[in-house]
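Figure 6 in text form: structure in, sequence out.
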């Protein structure tokens, strides 16, 4: 068999000898070209100056390391005006000048690094018979390609993500036309995005959440960039507004649930062990201390962002604490999974042919579904697999343990459900709540009309809706409407353009996954490269 067929070499190189040792395959090859082109002046020269041997690492063979001894030549440049007197012959598709390994093994290391991160790649490379230090892996992964990825982007999607919840945030940038991640910024400050925008003058439209820093960055660096508020975030914000209001009505929520409980058959009370009770009390005390600390800092005039940094409490929780009239007790643990209320609508979408968990999640998330994508995925997985054998006739279904009360989240979630989809118990709870607190009905109506206004992109209805809000008895709603007025152009653009940041949320979920397999010291830069190296999303 012709070994030259097995061991691929580029044009101009001939295989001389192949020696198989226990650990290593040594390959000797030589150049047979009679001339070479000067890299400086492109003149072809046949005047050989000297011979020398390069030793290169190559892709492994049957788990043996492959070492390539390459006999190459130096030529004299025959162009008298060329500053380069002597040059080495090049094999640009095979190896870089001065490199210690072939390009193909370098690509392999890079692919391993992108897929597995530094440490994982190093381990697998060793198993494959490639020796690569952690630093080599990182260097190959870091090769700068982002500059080309982000060139020419016109429709930009911007969103933040947490490196560590409530401690450090970064910014993810997406090309919404190409549906791909184009860059990752190490923080979410105005300055960093301003710099980036200045280096990317092609951006025409920027879709963003309603955080002020991104908007300010666009105004500062590129006033010609049209800003678009993201519809997905608008819906999220509206839901949060209702949640803040419900938090303030915490006492009514409990009362409505209590009224419901007294109508129920005697409730089963779960016994708790003394240790359990003690732990619960300790946790409650710790929460109460944090609650009071947050309120005290706020009274001293410390901004929420700074409170978050000092106390380690998430910012959303801080806002909840600040708007509550009193300490929000943890409600008895729910036996209902948060996904349960949305199962009917998911089932409907599933039957209509939408089987992608991420898309399904995005839809219910925009309606206020509080948890992550994992539960949706589990649910959908179960739907994919055939149902279990039918229950033996006669054995009754176990009675589902009824929820004792509803949290703020769940209440908001119930408020977005169509009346027909509510269980008897849920409907009763909402009716009682609205009797206790008539403005809840108003909040529900406003939220529903906002939802249809946004999803149908019915800009004609916006002004009417804003006016209703401004006359609302709910302070949170009035504030929300004023905020939208301040961001008027971007909100109207959101209804005018089809761009949605839904895909950005999907990418942020992927980013969280990658983040978990990271190489500590490479941190941000590696994360960025790995994210950018991912393929384009299908439309
Ligand atoms: Zn030359």
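Output sequence:
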């Amino acid at each position: 068999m012709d070994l030259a067929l097995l061991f691929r070499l580029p044009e101009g190189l001939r295989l001389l000898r192949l020696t198989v040792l226990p650990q290593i395959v040594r390959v000797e090859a030589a150049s047979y070209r009679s001339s070479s082109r000067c890299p400086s002046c492109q003149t072809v020269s046949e005047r050989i100056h000297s011979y020398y041997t390069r030793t290169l690492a190559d892709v492994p063979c049957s788990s043996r390391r492959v070492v390539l001894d390459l006999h190459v030549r130096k030529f004299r440049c025959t162009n008298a005006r060329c500053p380069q007197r002597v040059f080495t012959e090049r094999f640009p598709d095979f190896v870089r000048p001065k490199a210690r390994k072939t390009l193909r093994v370098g690509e392999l290391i890079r692919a391993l690094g992108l897929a597995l991160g530094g440490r994982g790649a190093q381990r697998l490379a060793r198993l494959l018979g490639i020796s690569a230090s952690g630093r080599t892996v990182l260097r190959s992964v870091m090769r700068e390609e982002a500059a080309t990825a982000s060139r020419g982007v016109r429709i930009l999607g911007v969103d933040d993500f947490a490196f560590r919840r409530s401690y450090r945030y970064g910014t993810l940038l997406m090309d919404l036309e190409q549906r791909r991640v184009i860059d990752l910024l190490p923080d979410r400050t105005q300055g960093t995005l301003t710099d980036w925008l200045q280096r990317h003058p092609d951006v025409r439209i920027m879709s963003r959440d309603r955080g002020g820093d991104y908007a300010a960055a666009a105004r500062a660096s590129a006033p010609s960039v049209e800003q678009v508020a993201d519809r997905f975030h608008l819906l999220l914000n509206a839901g949060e507004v209702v949640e803040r209001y419900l938090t303030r009505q915490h006492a009514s929520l409990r009362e409505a649930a209590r009224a419901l409980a007294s109508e129920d058959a005697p409730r089963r009370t779960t016994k708790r062990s003394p240790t359990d009770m003690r732990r619960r009390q300790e946790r409650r005390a710790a929460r109460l201390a944090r609650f009071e600390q947050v309120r005290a800092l706020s009274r001293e005039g410390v901004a929420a962002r700074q409170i978050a940094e000092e106390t380690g409490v998430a910012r959303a929780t801080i806002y909840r604490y600040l708007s509550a009239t009193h300490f929000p007790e943890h409600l008895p643990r729910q036996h209902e999974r948060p996904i349960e209320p949305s199962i009917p609508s998911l089932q409907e979408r599933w039957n209509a042919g939408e089987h992608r968990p991420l898309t399904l999640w995005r839809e219910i998330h925009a309606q206020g579904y509080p948890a992550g994508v994992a539960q949706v995925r589990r649910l959908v997985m179960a739907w994919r697999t055939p149902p279990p054998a039918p229950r033996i006739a006669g054995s009754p279904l176990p009675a589902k343990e009824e929820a004792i009360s509803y949290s703020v989240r769940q209440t908001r979630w119930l408020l977005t459900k169509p009346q027909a989809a509510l269980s008897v118990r849920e409907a009763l709870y909402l009716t009682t709540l609205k009797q206790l607190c008539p403005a809840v009905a108003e909040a529900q109506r406003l939220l529903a009309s906002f939802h249809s206004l946004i999803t149908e992109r019915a800009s004609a209805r916006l002004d009417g809706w804003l006016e209703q809000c401004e006359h609302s008895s709910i302070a949170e709603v009035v504030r929300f409407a004023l905020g939208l007025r301040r961001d008027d152009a971007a909100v109207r653009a959101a209804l005018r353009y089809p761009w949605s940041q839904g895909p950005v949320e999907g990418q942020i979920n992927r980013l969280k996954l990658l983040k978990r397999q990271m190489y500590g010291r490479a941190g941000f830069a590696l994360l960025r490269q790995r994210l950018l190296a991912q393929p384009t999303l299908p439309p």
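Caption detail: Residues 265-269, 387-403 have pLDDT under 50 and may be disordered.
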